[in-house]
Amino acid sequence: MDPEPRATRALRHVAALATGGPVDAALRVTLNFHPDRLVGGREILRRMAADGVYRSQFATGVSNGGLTAFPGGDRWRWESRMFGGAYDDAAPHERPVYGAWDFRRRAVGAAPRFGSAHFRLAASVVARTTFCYPDSVEEPRDFGVAGRMALEALALAGGRDALDDYVEAHVHGPVRLERDVEALVLDPCYRGTAVEEAARALPCPLEWHGGFRLPARELRGHRDFRGPRVAELAEEVAAGGVLDPAVIGAAVRSGRYDPQDLKKVWHCLARFGAPREAAPAAGLADPVG
To answer: Which of 64, 124, 239, 280 could form a disulfide with 107 if both were Cys (CB 3.0 to 4.6 A apart)?
Structure first.
Protein backbone atom coordinates (compact mmCIF):
# COMPACT_ATOMS: atom_id res chain seq x y z
CA MET A 1 0.00 0.00 0.00
CA ASP A 2 1.19 3.55 -0.67
CA PRO A 3 1.11 6.12 2.17
CA GLU A 4 -1.99 7.99 1.03
CA PRO A 5 -4.59 5.31 1.85
CA ARG A 6 -2.95 4.78 5.24
CA ALA A 7 -3.07 8.51 5.98
CA THR A 8 -6.69 8.69 4.89
CA ARG A 9 -7.65 5.78 7.12
CA ALA A 10 -5.81 7.27 10.09
CA LEU A 11 -7.37 10.70 9.63
CA ARG A 12 -10.85 9.22 9.30
CA HIS A 13 -10.37 7.14 12.45
CA VAL A 14 -9.23 10.10 14.55
CA ALA A 15 -11.92 12.41 13.13
CA ALA A 16 -14.56 10.02 14.43
CA LEU A 17 -13.12 10.45 17.94
CA ALA A 18 -12.68 14.23 17.79
CA THR A 19 -15.03 16.96 19.01
CA GLY A 20 -15.22 20.75 18.82
CA GLY A 21 -15.06 23.36 16.09
CA PRO A 22 -12.45 24.02 13.39
CA VAL A 23 -8.94 25.19 14.22
CA ASP A 24 -7.89 28.81 13.85
CA ALA A 25 -6.37 29.04 10.38
CA ALA A 26 -3.67 31.41 11.66
CA LEU A 27 -2.18 28.74 13.95
CA ARG A 28 0.59 26.41 12.90
CA VAL A 29 2.08 23.02 13.67
CA THR A 30 5.73 23.11 14.70
CA LEU A 31 8.32 20.33 14.78
CA ASN A 32 10.88 20.91 17.54
CA PHE A 33 14.27 19.18 17.33
CA HIS A 34 17.95 19.65 18.15
CA PRO A 35 19.71 20.99 15.03
CA ASP A 36 23.25 19.95 16.01
CA ARG A 37 22.70 16.23 16.55
CA LEU A 38 23.99 13.40 14.36
CA VAL A 39 21.85 10.83 12.52
CA GLY A 40 23.80 7.84 11.29
CA GLY A 41 27.01 9.76 11.91
CA ARG A 42 25.89 12.70 9.77
CA GLU A 43 24.78 16.18 10.85
CA ILE A 44 20.99 16.17 10.97
CA LEU A 45 20.49 19.36 8.91
CA ARG A 46 22.83 18.16 6.17
CA ARG A 47 20.96 14.88 6.04
CA MET A 48 17.69 16.79 5.74
CA ALA A 49 19.13 18.93 2.96
CA ALA A 50 20.10 15.80 1.05
CA ASP A 51 16.77 14.03 1.68
CA GLY A 52 14.50 17.03 1.34
CA VAL A 53 12.15 15.59 3.96
CA TYR A 54 11.66 15.46 7.73
CA ARG A 55 11.61 11.83 8.84
CA SER A 56 9.92 10.08 11.77
CA GLN A 57 11.65 8.29 14.64
CA PHE A 58 10.77 5.00 12.94
CA ALA A 59 12.90 6.02 9.97
CA THR A 60 15.80 7.69 11.80
CA GLY A 61 16.02 5.67 15.01
CA VAL A 62 16.63 9.00 16.79
CA SER A 63 14.30 10.79 19.21
CA ASN A 64 14.39 13.59 21.73
CA GLY A 65 11.75 11.70 23.72
CA GLY A 66 11.50 7.94 24.26
CA LEU A 67 13.17 5.40 21.95
CA THR A 68 10.41 2.85 21.39
CA ALA A 69 9.71 3.23 17.65
CA PHE A 70 10.02 -0.34 16.44
CA PRO A 71 7.50 -3.11 15.68
CA GLY A 72 5.86 -4.12 18.95
CA GLY A 73 7.45 -1.24 20.88
CA ASP A 74 5.47 1.28 22.89
CA ARG A 75 5.42 3.89 20.09
CA TRP A 76 4.19 1.27 17.63
CA ARG A 77 1.47 0.21 20.08
CA TRP A 78 0.36 3.79 20.76
CA GLU A 79 0.12 4.52 17.05
CA SER A 80 -1.87 1.35 16.46
CA ARG A 81 -4.43 2.47 19.03
CA MET A 82 -4.57 6.13 17.97
CA PHE A 83 -4.77 5.50 14.23
CA GLY A 84 -6.99 2.42 14.15
CA GLY A 85 -4.23 0.09 12.98
CA ALA A 86 -3.66 2.09 9.78
CA TYR A 87 0.13 1.87 10.11
CA ASP A 88 0.52 -1.54 11.73
CA ASP A 89 2.37 -3.01 8.75
CA ALA A 90 3.67 0.25 7.30
CA ALA A 91 7.26 0.87 6.25
CA PRO A 92 9.12 3.35 8.49
CA HIS A 93 9.01 6.15 5.90
CA GLU A 94 5.21 5.88 5.65
CA ARG A 95 4.54 6.71 9.29
CA PRO A 96 3.50 10.15 10.59
CA VAL A 97 5.97 12.64 12.04
CA TYR A 98 5.40 14.21 15.45
CA GLY A 99 5.18 17.86 16.42
CA ALA A 100 2.81 20.09 18.35
CA TRP A 101 0.04 22.60 17.66
CA ASP A 102 1.32 26.10 18.43
CA PHE A 103 -1.90 27.59 19.82
CA ARG A 104 0.17 29.65 22.29
CA ARG A 105 2.12 31.20 19.40
CA ARG A 106 5.51 30.58 20.98
CA ALA A 107 8.57 31.90 19.18
CA VAL A 108 10.49 28.79 20.32
CA GLY A 109 7.88 26.39 18.92
CA ALA A 110 5.02 24.60 20.59
CA ALA A 111 7.08 21.87 22.29
CA PRO A 112 10.62 23.06 23.18
CA ARG A 113 10.96 19.99 25.38
CA PHE A 114 12.07 18.24 22.19
CA GLY A 115 14.61 20.77 20.96
CA SER A 116 15.75 24.36 20.65
CA ALA A 117 14.97 24.60 16.93
CA HIS A 118 11.74 24.05 15.06
CA PHE A 119 10.22 23.90 11.64
CA ARG A 120 7.09 26.01 11.38
CA LEU A 121 4.86 24.17 8.94
CA ALA A 122 2.63 25.69 6.30
CA ALA A 123 -1.09 26.20 6.95
CA SER A 124 -1.94 23.54 4.36
CA VAL A 125 -0.34 20.81 6.50
CA VAL A 126 -3.01 21.12 9.21
CA ALA A 127 -5.58 19.42 6.97
CA ARG A 128 -3.57 16.18 7.17
CA THR A 129 -2.69 16.41 10.83
CA THR A 130 -4.23 14.68 13.83
CA PHE A 131 -3.89 15.90 17.41
CA CYS A 132 -4.11 14.52 20.94
CA TYR A 133 -3.87 15.76 24.50
CA PRO A 134 -1.90 14.93 26.52
CA ASP A 135 1.16 13.36 24.86
CA SER A 136 0.59 9.95 23.27
CA VAL A 137 2.93 8.39 25.85
CA GLU A 138 0.02 8.82 28.28
CA GLU A 139 -2.41 6.97 25.98
CA PRO A 140 -4.83 9.92 25.69
CA ARG A 141 -8.56 9.72 25.08
CA ASP A 142 -8.99 13.23 23.64
CA PHE A 143 -8.26 13.81 19.96
CA GLY A 144 -8.62 16.45 17.29
CA VAL A 145 -8.40 17.12 13.56
CA ALA A 146 -8.50 20.36 11.59
CA GLY A 147 -12.28 20.45 11.51
CA ARG A 148 -12.88 19.27 15.09
CA MET A 149 -10.57 20.64 17.73
CA ALA A 150 -11.46 20.97 21.42
CA LEU A 151 -7.97 20.33 22.81
CA GLU A 152 -6.87 23.91 23.44
CA ALA A 153 -9.27 24.28 26.36
CA LEU A 154 -8.07 20.98 27.84
CA ALA A 155 -4.43 22.07 27.62
CA LEU A 156 -5.13 25.49 29.13
CA ALA A 157 -6.97 23.88 32.03
CA GLY A 158 -4.51 21.01 32.46
CA GLY A 159 -2.25 22.64 35.03
CA ARG A 160 0.79 20.82 33.68
CA ASP A 161 4.41 21.92 33.79
CA ALA A 162 5.42 24.34 31.04
CA LEU A 163 7.37 21.60 29.23
CA ASP A 164 4.39 19.23 29.16
CA ASP A 165 1.44 21.45 28.27
CA TYR A 166 1.55 21.03 24.48
CA VAL A 167 -1.07 19.54 22.19
CA GLU A 168 0.69 16.76 20.29
CA ALA A 169 0.42 16.76 16.49
CA HIS A 170 0.90 13.93 13.98
CA VAL A 171 1.45 14.90 10.34
CA HIS A 172 0.34 12.18 7.94
CA GLY A 173 2.11 11.92 4.63
CA PRO A 174 5.63 13.20 3.89
CA VAL A 175 6.82 16.55 5.23
CA ARG A 176 8.75 18.00 2.31
CA LEU A 177 10.93 20.92 3.34
CA GLU A 178 10.48 22.89 0.13
CA ARG A 179 6.69 22.52 0.06
CA ASP A 180 5.56 22.16 3.67
CA VAL A 181 7.87 24.36 5.76
CA GLU A 182 7.36 28.10 6.23
CA ALA A 183 10.61 28.56 8.14
CA LEU A 184 13.33 26.91 10.17
CA VAL A 185 13.71 28.82 13.46
CA LEU A 186 17.07 28.53 15.24
CA ASP A 187 18.58 29.62 18.54
CA PRO A 188 21.03 32.54 18.08
CA CYS A 189 23.81 30.51 19.70
CA TYR A 190 24.20 28.89 16.28
CA ARG A 191 24.91 32.13 14.40
CA GLY A 192 28.16 31.85 12.51
CA THR A 193 28.47 28.10 13.12
CA ALA A 194 28.30 24.98 10.97
CA VAL A 195 24.66 24.65 12.02
CA GLU A 196 23.80 28.00 10.39
CA GLU A 197 25.77 27.01 7.30
CA ALA A 198 23.83 23.74 7.03
CA ALA A 199 20.53 25.53 7.68
CA ARG A 200 21.13 27.85 4.74
CA ALA A 201 21.37 24.82 2.45
CA LEU A 202 17.74 23.94 3.21
CA PRO A 203 14.99 25.02 0.80
CA CYS A 204 13.16 27.15 3.39
CA PRO A 205 13.64 30.55 5.06
CA LEU A 206 15.76 30.83 8.20
CA GLU A 207 14.60 32.75 11.27
CA TRP A 208 15.96 33.22 14.80
CA HIS A 209 14.20 33.25 18.16
CA GLY A 210 15.41 35.03 21.31
CA GLY A 211 17.62 32.20 22.57
CA PHE A 212 17.82 29.73 25.46
CA ARG A 213 20.49 30.75 27.98
CA LEU A 214 20.96 30.07 31.68
CA PRO A 215 23.74 30.40 34.27
CA ALA A 216 24.11 26.76 35.32
CA ARG A 217 24.42 27.63 39.01
CA GLU A 218 20.79 28.78 38.95
CA LEU A 219 19.78 25.12 38.76
CA ARG A 220 20.98 24.69 42.32
CA GLY A 221 17.63 26.21 43.23
CA HIS A 222 15.77 23.76 40.99
CA ARG A 223 17.47 20.51 41.98
CA ASP A 224 14.11 18.80 42.42
CA PHE A 225 13.14 19.38 38.76
CA ARG A 226 15.33 16.66 37.21
CA GLY A 227 17.36 15.66 40.26
CA PRO A 228 20.59 16.77 41.97
CA ARG A 229 22.84 14.75 39.64
CA VAL A 230 21.45 16.56 36.58
CA ALA A 231 21.92 19.95 38.22
CA GLU A 232 25.54 19.03 38.96
CA LEU A 233 26.09 17.77 35.40
CA ALA A 234 24.72 21.06 34.07
CA GLU A 235 27.46 22.94 35.90
CA GLU A 236 30.07 20.48 34.65
CA VAL A 237 29.22 20.88 30.95
CA ALA A 238 28.45 24.62 31.01
CA ALA A 239 30.83 26.87 29.09
CA GLY A 240 32.00 29.71 31.27
CA GLY A 241 29.27 28.76 33.71
CA VAL A 242 26.52 29.26 31.12
CA LEU A 243 24.26 26.76 29.39
CA ASP A 244 22.92 27.18 25.87
CA PRO A 245 21.79 24.62 23.27
CA ALA A 246 25.17 24.52 21.51
CA VAL A 247 26.97 23.74 24.78
CA ILE A 248 24.67 20.79 25.44
CA GLY A 249 25.01 19.62 21.84
CA ALA A 250 28.79 19.63 22.15
CA ALA A 251 28.52 17.54 25.33
CA VAL A 252 26.30 15.04 23.50
CA ARG A 253 28.74 14.71 20.60
CA SER A 254 31.71 14.29 22.95
CA GLY A 255 30.40 10.88 23.99
CA ARG A 256 31.59 11.50 27.57
CA TYR A 257 28.15 11.63 29.16
CA ASP A 258 24.97 9.60 29.28
CA PRO A 259 22.70 11.03 26.54
CA GLN A 260 19.66 10.55 28.76
CA ASP A 261 21.26 12.68 31.48
CA LEU A 262 22.06 15.38 28.92
CA LYS A 263 18.48 15.24 27.71
CA LYS A 264 17.46 16.15 31.24
CA VAL A 265 20.00 18.98 31.28
CA TRP A 266 18.28 20.27 28.15
CA HIS A 267 14.91 20.02 29.92
CA CYS A 268 16.32 22.24 32.67
CA LEU A 269 17.56 24.82 30.17
CA ALA A 270 14.29 24.73 28.22
CA ARG A 271 12.28 25.13 31.42
CA PHE A 272 14.29 27.82 33.20
CA GLY A 273 16.32 29.49 30.44
CA ALA A 274 13.70 30.17 27.76
CA PRO A 275 13.68 33.62 26.15
CA ARG A 276 11.18 36.13 27.50
CA GLU A 277 9.85 37.67 24.32
CA ALA A 278 7.15 40.32 24.33
CA ALA A 279 5.70 38.98 21.09
CA PRO A 280 6.39 35.22 21.10
CA ALA A 281 4.53 34.62 17.81
CA ALA A 282 7.10 36.40 15.69
CA GLY A 283 10.48 34.90 14.83
CA LEU A 284 13.33 37.22 13.93
CA ALA A 285 13.55 37.01 10.17
CA ASP A 286 16.86 36.53 8.46
CA PRO A 287 16.92 36.07 4.67
CA VAL A 288 18.25 32.88 3.16
CA GLY A 289 21.31 33.38 1.07
So the answer is: 280
Which segments of 189-258 does DSSP mark as H helices, in order? 194-199, 223-226, 228-237, 245-254
Return the amino acid letter for 179.
R
pTM of model > 0.85? yes
Alpha carbon distance, N-terminus to C-terminus of the chain: 40
CA–CA separation, 285 vs 208, rounded Å? Answer: 6
The stretches of 99-226 forming alpha helices (DSSP H) are 151-156, 177-180, 194-199, 223-226
User: What would the pLDDT profile of 96-117 be if each residue is shown by its tens digit?
Assistant: 999 999 999 999 999 999 999 9
Which residues face 181 on adjacent strands?
121
Phi, psi of 46 (to 5 degrees): -70, -35
**φ/ψ bin of 168: left (φ > 0), alpha (ψ from -120 to 50), beta (otherwise):** beta
| Residue-by-residue DSSP string for 44-69 | HHHHHHHH-EE--HHHH---SS----
Which of the four pLDDT bands, split at 50, 70 and 90, describes residue 61? low
Are the beta carbons of 99 and 128 closer than 8 angstroms? no
Per-residue exposure over 21-33, b if at least 16 CB sit within 10 Å of its own CB, e if not: eebeeebbbbbbb
Dihedral (CA of 31, 36, 38, 42) sign: positive
Q: Name the residue ranges covered by the structural domains of the chain.
A: 8-207, 214-273
Q: Which of 49, 30, 39, 57 is nearest to 207 (CA)?
A: 30
Residue 281's identity, in one-letter code, is: A
| Contact (CB, 8 A) for 14 and 109 | no
